[in-house]
Amino acid sequence: MKYEDGTEVLLHDRVDLGGGMTGWVVAVFDNGRYTPDYPKEHWGHLVQGALVKSSEMGLVHFPVPSVDFTLIRRG
């Protein structure tokens, strides 16, 4: 998965979700990367996009990038 600007989404990226909300990338399904707290055994059924943990929204699956999904900094 890539951000709108073409930069690849990586585990632990800090992302802006729009509306003042932020989160951390905890899984990237396109390349099979998972953090220990969100293992493939539980999330492997999702095959596209990224999983983001946000204190405001909880866990959010982004199947494709959107304008409200932008990189703040690498984790």
Account of the protein in words:
The protein is mainly beta. The chain has one domain (14-73). 5% of the residues lie in helices and 39% in strands. The protein contains one helix and six strands. Strands 1, 2, 3, 4, 5 and 6 form a six-stranded antiparallel β-sheet that branches. The longest helix has 4 residues, at 40-43. The protein is globular and about 30 Å long. The protein starts with 13 loop residues before the first strand and ends with a strand.
Q: Detail the poorly predicted runs.
A: none
Shape field: globular
Query: Helical segment tally?
Result: 1
**Range of strand content:** 35-45%
**Which sheet architecture does the biggest sheet show?**
6 strands, antiparallel
**Domain unit count:** 1
Counted beta strands = 6
Mean pLDDT: 93
How is the quaternary structure best described? single chain
Q: Helix amount, in percent?
A: under 10%
Radius of gyration: 11 Å
> What distance lies between the first and last C-alpha atoms, to the nearest angstrom?
16 Å
SSE run: EEEHEEE
Give me the secondary-structure category.
mainly beta
Give a summary of the structure in a few sentences.
This protein has one domain (14-73).
Which SSEs are present, and which pair or pack?
Elements: E1 14-18, E2 21-28, E3 33-34, H1 40-43, E4 50-54, E5 58-62, E6 70-73
Antiparallel strand pairs: 1-2, 1-6, 2-3, 2-4, 4-5
Primary descriptors:
6-stranded antiparallel β-sheet, mainly beta, globular, single chain, 75 residues, 39% strand, 1 helix
